[in-house]
Amino acid sequence: MNDEVYELETPANRTLLDVIRDDLGMPGTKQGCGNGECGACTVLLDGEPVNACLVLALQANGKRVVTVEGLSEGKKLHPIQEAFIAHGAVQCGFCTPGMVLSVKALLDKNPTPQEVEIREALTGNFCRCTGYQKIVEVVLSLRA
Amino acid sequence: MDKYLVVGHPVPQVDARERVSGAAEFVSDIRLPGMLHGRILRSPHPHARLLRIDTSRARRFPGVKAVVTAEDTPKIPFGPRTDDWMIMAVDKVRFVGDEVAGVAAVDEDTAEEALSLIEVEYEPLLAVFDPLEAMQPGAPLIHNKEKNIVSEFDLVKGDVDQAFKESDVVYTNRYYTNQVYQAYLEPMACVVQPDLSGKLTFYMATQIPSMTRIPYAKALGLPLEKVRVVVPYYGGAFGAKMETNLHLVAAVLAQKTGKPVRMVNPREEDFMAGNPRVPMAINLTIGAKKDGTLTGKEVKVVGAAGARAVYSMVIVATACYRIDSLYHFKNLRTKGVTAYTNTVPTSAYRGFGNAQMAFAVESSLDMIAETLSIDPAELRIKNGIQTGETSIHGWKIGSSGLSECVRRATEASGWKEKRRQKQFARGIGLACCNHVSGNRAFAREFDGGAGIVRIGREGKVLVYHGESDMGQGQNTVFAQIVAEELGVSLEQIEVARVDTDVSPFGLGSFATRGTVFGGNGVKAAAADAKRQVFELAAEMLEANPADLEAREGKIYVSGSPDKNIPFLKVAENSLYKRGGAPIIGTGFWVPDTVLPDPVTKYGNISPAYPFACQIAEVEVDTETGQVRVINYTAAHDVGRAINPQTTEGQIQGGVAQGVGWTLMENMVIEQGRILNPNFRDYVIPGPLDLPPIKSILVEPVDPKGPFGAKGIGEPALNPAPAAVANAIYNAIGVRITELPITPEKVLQALRRKNEDEKILLL
User: I need a labelling partner for B538 at 20 to 30 A (CA). Which of A105, B84, B451, B754 fits?
Assistant: First the structure.
C-alpha cells in the first residue's frame, strides 16, 4: 500500500476500508455510505478504482493499493491535487480523496479524455457541493 | 478589481491543501484515546406507546460499556424553537427512526450487535402521515396538544378580492414540493468527550456551534458553560446540520461511561432521522393587468413538520411572505399552516421555504406572461423590486441587481432567439428569486456578527469567528477580508477552527448570513487590531496614527512612501514591549435590522438582500418522458464577490442541487417508512446528469455588506425548480406542478394534452 508493504492479520469479514482507516491509521479515505454507492472510499487496486467499502481486506492481499495518502510525496502534492486546488474543485472535500483517485485512474488509461468521457469516468463518485463543473475543468486542464 | 488587493480576487480555499491531500481531519475521522463507538436503537413504528424496554441482555454482551434510555436522562423537554424533543423516547415513539436507546461499545460492530439484544415492547397507535389529514378533528394526536398544529401564519395586506376583480388575468394553481434529503457526503457525526468536572466537549459538524449549546445544555440539565462545541472539518450540511439527537445520545453515553463516545449515522439512519426539507402544498392565485402589472397574490401553504417542530414553522412562514419582497404584488392574503405528522422531522434545506414558494410563484408568472403575450423576462423586470425601495413588509432594499440579473442571463443564454425559433421538444425557461443575508426572525435573541483577530510575534494573524465553514469557503472569505483590512498577504492569515471556549458567539451559518455577518464581524475585529498596530507603529515611525496606512505587509506614512515599517516588525516590537501580550483586536457589527411585527410582519429582517435570475434549457424525450437539462445560466446579484472562485462554486453547486430536486430526488415514504434510504434508490445527480453551468456575477456593491458583499448560499438553488419547469413548458407545453418532475408525470401530462387537443377538434 502506497509503496510500503504491510503484513497484517485481520478477520475475514473486515473491509479494505476499515483496515485502511482503522488498522493502518490512514483516514484520508472516507466512508460516505458503506454500500458502494457514493464513491468517497475510492482507492486504486492494481490501478483500478474500487470502492474500498465493498472490497474485503483479504482480496487486497498481494495487490498494490493506492490511497490519497500515497499520491503526494511528502508535502509535494500530486499534479492532480494541485489542479483541484487551483480550479476551486474542492469545497467540503469529503468526496475529494476518492474523486482524485478516479481522475488518476482515468488519466492513466486515457490521457486525452473528451468531456463526456470524463463525466462517465466520474459517475461512481458523488459530489454534492460543486455540481462537478470545476472537477471536469480540472481533468480537461490535465489532458496530455 | 479596483483598489483591493485581496478582496474580489479569485483564490483557492485557504484550507484546500488539507482537504485535497486527505490530511484534513473530518468529524468522522476523529479518534481519541479510550474512545467508544455508539449506536442508536431507533423505533420501527411511526407511532406507538413504549410499554417496556429491557436492556439487560445488551448490557451483558461482551464489549458493551453502556446502554442508555430516557431513564438515564433528565427527561427535560427541549428543542430549538418548541420544546417537543426528548433525547430518547419517553412513553411514546412518533416516527420511524425516533431514538429509543443508545449503546456504547468497544467497536461499531459490537454496538450494532448489542442493539439487537435490546428488547422493546411497543403498542402500535394509529398514525397520521399527511398534514392535511393531521389537521382534521379526530386525527391521532402526536403530542400532548389539542391539535396537531405546530403554528399558523396569517397575513392580509390591501384588498386581494378587489384587486382580482380589477385584474385582466387571475391565475390559480396548486403546487406540491416534495420531501428531499440534503445528501451531504459525510453523514451526521460527533465525538463527545467528557471531563472530570462534568464538562462535555462536542466535536461535531454543526452550522450553529454557539446556538446549539442552549437547547443541548437544557436537555442535559447542564449549565451552558459545561457544553463546549468544537467544529472540525465536516462534509457538507446544506441546512441539515443543526440540532440532532445523535449528538445528545452520544453525550449521555459519554456521561455514563466517562469516555469519549463517537457516533456516526449509518447512511440509512441519516435518511430516516436526518433533517429533510419541509414538503409543502401550495395553493396560489396571482392577478395581473393587461400590461403585466401584478395586482395581488393569495396563497395557502400547508407544510408537514414531521414528528417535531424543529424550524418548520419558520420555514413555512418564509414560504408565506419572503417572495413578497421580490415583486410588487400590492395586495396580499396569506395563510400558512404547519402540522405535525408521524414522519421524520423536517427542517432547513438550502432555500428555507423560499425555494418551495419560488417554484410556485415563478411557475405561475410564466403562465400569466403567456396569457398576456408578454416576455417572461419583461414581466419580472416590470414588477421586480429596485434599489432604494422599501418592500411591502418593510424590507429596505439597499441594493437590487434583479433587473441586471435578468438582462445578463437572457443575453448570455440566447433567450430571445431561442424563445422565437423554437425547436421540437426543446425549451428554455427562466426564474428569479430574492433572498436574505441573515434572517432577523430566525435567531431572535440578537442580531449581529463578531470576530477576534490575534497578531503574534511572527506577524501571523489568527482569525476567530463563530460561524461555520461546511465547505462553502467561508474561512477563505474571512481570511481575505482580514488580509485586506490589515494590508497583509492572504498567506499571513490563519483561520482558527470554531471552539466555543474561545470563539465569539456567532449565530452560525444559515440564512445565507455567513459572509455578511461573520465577514463584517471579522472586518471590525481587524479594524480594531489595525488601530492598535497603528498606535505602536506611530511611535516607531514618529508619526501620527491618523496619518498611517497599511498595504502589502507594511505600515506607511501617507504621502511619504519611504517612511514605512514592516507589519512583522511592529508585531514583534509590541510583544516585547508589553510582556509578551499579543495584539488582540475584537470587533462586532450590529445591523439595523428590525424583527417583524408578530401581526403585520412588518420589519426589516436582513441587512442585505441578494437576487438572481436563472435560465434552464431542456430537451424532452417525448417517447420516454425523460427531461435532460442541456444548458444552464445563473446570474446572481452577490453585492460584491469577495472570492469569485468560491462564489462561482456556490452557484454551480446550488444549481446542481436544484436540478436534482426538480428531476430526480424524492424521499418515498409509505406508512411513515422511507423506502429508499440509500444512494442506490435515492439518486442524486452525478456528473452526467448535469449541464455546463454558466455563472454570471452581478455586483451592485451593497451598502451594508463587507466590501459590498451579500450572501449566495441559498439563492444559488432557489430558482432552479421553476426554471426547469418553465423550460419544460416551453418545450412541450405541459405544466408540471408537483415535484419531482419524473418521466411518468411528463408522459401522463403529454398524453392528457394530446387528448385535450383531439377533444377540442370534435
Answer: B451
